[in-house]
Write a structure and sequence with these properties.
Layout (H helix, E strand, L loop, with lengths): L4 E5 L10 H9 L1 H12 L5 H14 L4 H7 L7 H12 L3 E9 H11 L7 E9 L5 E4 L18 H12 L4 E6 L5 H4 L7 E5 L3 H6 L2 H4 L5 E5 L2 H12 L7
Parallel strand pairs: 1-2, 1-5, 2-3, 5-6, 6-7
Antiparallel strand pairs: 3-4
Helix pairs in contact: 1-2, 2-3, 5-11
């Protein structure tokens, strides 16, 4: 028996193999995708506010709610991740998604890919279609500010992880999966018995390979390339086979 574990997942480039915000603009508004890169690099916008603004441009250009909803299920996704989620869920462990995407994207994709039932909670920015069919995205954190110097104003994943554990724990072990800079903060909140699974070739791996940053993370760290690696790690950690999912 492994006890009761918490599997905390990022979403973009972790559960799915693309950034969902970029994917929508790439497919439905390449001009907005270009503007996203340029404007975000100026530092004048939070990611969430920028996505909301550019979704407004998509809507003005005639992109409908139906088109957006129809696109989301096509995002690249490795079925091995579905099996990994099912495996952890079948063993009675808890799964939470903590993401800088939004509720519409995550819910639509999770339902379409068949793993929504494995997730106990989704912590992310609010997405909601208004009466005109325009998707609005609002910050998860608005007031009071979360106060973390590592994280963007709209979401501190470390704070959210600690609050989730306080409300839903205790857990015998936490396994955190992510890829980006904003996945470093929750890594610093983990105990030596916990584990960070960081995707190779992404910002989180670079940070964890730096000795100064690595010293801030007490948990064990492993790296992975594809969802097949995640599934392999889950079967090893849980002492079960993929067929038991």
């Amino acid at each position: 028996m492994t006890g009761r574990w918490l599997f905390a997942f990022d979403f973009d480039y972790t559960i799915v193999d693309e950034d969902s915000d970029y994917y929508v603009f790439q497919q439905l508004g390449p001009e907005q995708q270009r503007k996203m890169r340029e404007l975000y690099a100026t530092g004048a916008y939070t990611w969430t506010d920028l996505v909301d603004m550019l979704l407004g441009e998509l809507h003005s250009n005639g992109v409908t709610e139906a088109q957006l909803r129809a696109l989301l299920p096509s995002i690249p996704f490795n079925p091995a991740m579905h099996t990994a989620l099912e495996l952890a869920s079948a063993q009675g462990h808890e799964i939470v998604v903590i993401s800088d995407a939004n509720t519409v994207y995550i819910d639509e994709i999770a339902v379409a890919k068949g793993f929504r039932h494995t997730i106990q909670s989704i912590i992310t920015n609010k997405g909601e279609f208004d009466e005109t069919g325009r998707l609005r995205i609002t910050r998860h954190t608005t007031h009071p500010p979360h106060g973390c110097p590592r994280c963007a104003a709209n979401l501190c994943k470390g704070k959210e992880l600690l609050e989730y554990v306080a409300a839903r724990g205790p857990f015998d072990r936490i396994v955190y999966l992510g890829d980006g800079k904003n996945d470093f903060c929750p890594g610093t909140k983990l105990a030596p018995s916990d584990l960070v699974l960081a995707r190779r070739g992404r910002a989180l791996e670079q940070m964890l390979l730096d000795p100064q940053h690595r010293a801030e993370v007490a948990a064990a760290v492993e790296f992975w390339d594809t969802s097949d690696d995640v599934l392999g790690a889950f079967t090893r950690l849980l002492g079960v086979s993929a067929e038991q999912s």
